[in-house]
Amino acid sequence: MANDKEERLQKVIAQAGIASRRAAEKLILEGRVAVNGQQISKLGTKVTSADEVKVDGVPLDGSEKKVYYLLNKPRGVVTTASDDKGRQTVVDLLTDVDARVYPVGRLDYDTTGALIMTNDGDLANQLMHPKGKVDKVYTAKVKGVANMADLAPLKRGIVLNGKKTAPARVAIEKVDQDRKVSFITMTIHEGRNHQVKDMLQKVGYPVEKLRRDRYAFLDLLGLQAGDYRDLSHDEVKRLKNGDYRYMRRK
């Protein structure tokens, strides 16, 4: 930190590029953070630049170079930096990345597609904040022969767990009458757990497969499952400036 202003511990950890603010809170609750040699396991601690903060015994280094990647997450990989069950994580896939990166948001274990990986806590928090309204585009393979009349409630927003969703954009891409399956494209900007699956389930179309095709303007062109690439300087600049508009690439 550049001054002696008190800041919440999780914010300082996020700004140092160790984890997102939410993930930093988890690190604290797990007892993996120490301030001036004292283990912290409850939220609410504030620190200044005069305090020594360590995560897993390693002092924070606010000068760590910020890095940004787009990953095409495959099925069967968990969207966390580590997993207590020993499952492969999205961080494991970035084999030649030395920086301590973490995912921006989550994709379910069996969901594939676009996922930003970074150590820039400020950008991660910006992208995940509800007021940012970052478009996330999904393609779902669902059971049943879909029709727009059934899907219409999604365009107005539906109630899930007592809270109404924001309106989604929905289109039917393909219907297989013989196999009784359909392919539906949905665009949302919220980030509730299992949201796309739950929305489609509620209108009568259980999801068999789900892929996130796009996050903001970042698509999967040129990336096979498990592949990743650096974000360009211009892409990072656009994200930081809140310019999430999509322009189809060739």
Automatic annotation (TrEMBL):
The answer to whether UniProt assigns keyword Isomerase to this entry is yes
Write out the similarity annotation: Belongs to the pseudouridine synthase RsuA family.
- Give the source lineage, highest ranks first: Bacteria, Bacillati, Bacillota, Bacilli, Lactobacillales
The cross-references to NCBIfam families, in alphabetical order and at most eight, read: pseudouridine synthase
Which InterPro entries does the protein's record reference? PsdUridine_s_RsuA/RluB/E/F_cat, PsdUridine_synth_cat_dom_sf, PsdUridine_synth_RsuA/RluA, PsdUridine_synth_RsuA/RluB/E/F, PsdUridine_synth_RsuA/RluB_CS, RsuA_PseudoU_synthase, S4_RNA-bd, S4_RNA-bd_sf
Question: What sequence ranges are listed for the domain RNA-binding S4?
Answer: 7-64
User: Which UniProt keywords are given for this protein, alphabetically ordered?
Assistant: Isomerase, RNA-binding
Query: RNA-binding among the record's keywords?
Result: yes
What PROSITE patterns does its record include? Answer: PSI_RSU, S4
Q: What is this protein called?
A: Pseudouridine synthase
| EC numbers | 5.4.99.-
Enzyme superclass (EC): isomerase
